[in-house]
Amino acid sequence: MDCRRIADQVYNLADAGTSDSLTPLVKEALEVIDCCLDTHGPDNVSLSFNGGKDCTVLLHLYAGALARRLQPSESMKPIHAIYIPVPSPFAELEHFIDQAMESYNLDLFSCRPSAPQVESVSTPIPRQNGKDYVSAPAPVGKAKGGEGMRQALQTYKDHFPHITAILIGTRRTDPHGAKLSHRNMTDNGWPAFERVNPIINWSYGDVWSFLRRLSVPYCRLYDEGYTSLGSTFNTFPNPALLMCSPPSPSTEIQTPLTASSVITPSAVLAHVMANTHSEPESPEGDPMSPTGVLSSYISKTHTKPNGVAPDSVTGHARKSIIVDTKTKCNGNPVSRYLPAYELKDGNLERSGRASIQPQTTHDQ
């Protein structure tokens, strides 16, 4: 990447004028980044990077902010960054991270927690009456608290004690993001870092407008219908982006699953599960709930790293059984999913994330 060109690109966008909806957001983000660099100094600031769309936006902005400070004869230094992997990352995601390391010259420290983390995602969960569903943040897996994250940050602090601030791509609509400001210190008992959130006020649509407008490379999973990336066993293409072939094979016209009745994450999930998956029976013979069906589906179609799944009791690796599921929509073969940037309702961003998945010793 030509970071000087990126600097011209992002700062010109920040000064584009009031007619451009991205201008105030980019300007605000760059001001937050510049203020952080003024406070801590470029050598003492790091970037939290996991290959997701939000931190990809932040990486591009940060590279531009750093290049803006260079003297004419000065070269870009490697960009300090930390990567804290989820327990079972997508291979495509880690491939993109490797590409970003090379493209942006990232000095990326990978720190896999020794303790399990908690991954909080907003997913449809049943109300008490068992009929209606609400969308609420819920921890994924059996771990309690953020001990894995705390340990990872402590390891990073031990290796790089001079790092005093970390840039994070958190947005207001993310789980636990509602009450954050642009700059927050870590809690008592955690390694001392200032957490800086330059894009906290961006929406899902703003993120994709920026990435596509500036032709910023991003992980290819987003082109396959994924809208929020986590572990392989709790992440799947967003049901709201499902494309179906029409009943007649003579036409190639495709219609997205965006009927006017599909207005909530729970409605989307229930509709897709009802039309694309057989409902297995529970041991008692009763039909499973949509979340139960989803759990069963994920357990059959998602694998752990290297194609193995940990045993729920012993933790020993065992071979996964790959089930050839010919997914159908309204009785017809599914053609594909729309890319993530086609999602019009940002409230559905995490409809492709599950709060229930096969119980393993490595759940996040």
UniProtKB/TrEMBL annotation:
Disordered: annotated span: 276-313, 344-364
Q: In which pathway does it act?
A: Cofactor biosynthesis; FAD biosynthesis; FAD from FMN: step 1/1
Reaction catalysed by this enzyme: FMN + ATP + H(+) = FAD + diphosphate
EC number(s) given by UniProt = 2.7.7.2
Q: Which UniProt keywords apply?
A: ATP-binding, FAD, Flavoprotein, FMN, Nucleotide-binding, Nucleotidyltransferase, Transferase
Give any single GO term for biological process: FAD biosynthetic process
- Phosphoadenosine phosphosulphate reductase domain residues are 45-235
Keyword Repeat on entry: no
Question: Bias category Polar residues: which stretches?
Answer: 354-364
Indicate yes or no for the key word Transmembrane helix.
no
For this UniProt entry, the molecular function terms from Gene Ontology, in alphabetical order, are: ATP binding; FMN adenylyltransferase activity
- Provide the leader sequence positions: none
Record's InterPro entries? Answer: PAPS_reduct_dom, Rossmann-like_a/b/a_fold
Q: What is this protein called?
A: FAD synthase
Q: Which organism is it from?
A: Cyclocybe aegerita (Black poplar mushroom)
